[in-house]
Design a protein that fits this description.
Elements lengths: L7 H11 L1 H6 L1 H15 L6 H14 L3 H13 L4 H36 L8
């Protein structure tokens, strides 16, 4: 796993906490970045889950552990399946080569960690 802390939950929480200084010192910039994210990820012709899968693939290809963590967490919340994850990672590896394969393993670990922590939905019969 490329993530040195070993926990994607800890990694994403730590990054968010460290970004608090930027939120305080450059609030307009951070609000603009947040608005860009909300606009780019909003449902449109492509749904939010598809956009999160794309974002995860780009995080893998660019070797960004925090990106992997944030987007794996979002995918779990959106109900992405392991098969959707695996096919997305296949495309990321195709486009990014061997280094992306190594980060694909990190994405699997992040998805598994957030899936294990997600509340279990119970079907009503």
């Amino acid at each position: 796993m490329a993530n040195e802390s070993g926990s994607y939950r800890e990694l994403t929480q730590g990054v968010s906490a460290r970004l608090a200084t930027l939120r305080a010192s450059t609030p307009d910039v951070m609000k603009s970045v947040a608005e860009l994210g909300r606009t780019a990820m909003a449902d449109g012709v492509l749904g939010r889950k598809t956009k999160e899968l794309i974002a995860l693939a780009l995080g893998v290809a660019s070797r960004c552990d925090p990106c992997i963590g944030y987007h794996a967490q979002a995918l779990v919340k959106l109900g992405a399946s392991r098969q959707e994850l695996d096919e997305t990672l296949g495309v990321a590896v195709y486009m990014g080569g061997g280094p992306s394969l190594m980060y694909a393993a990190s994405a699997i670990a992040a998805f598994a960690e957030f899936s294990a922590a997600a509340p279990v939905e119970r079907s009503v019969v």
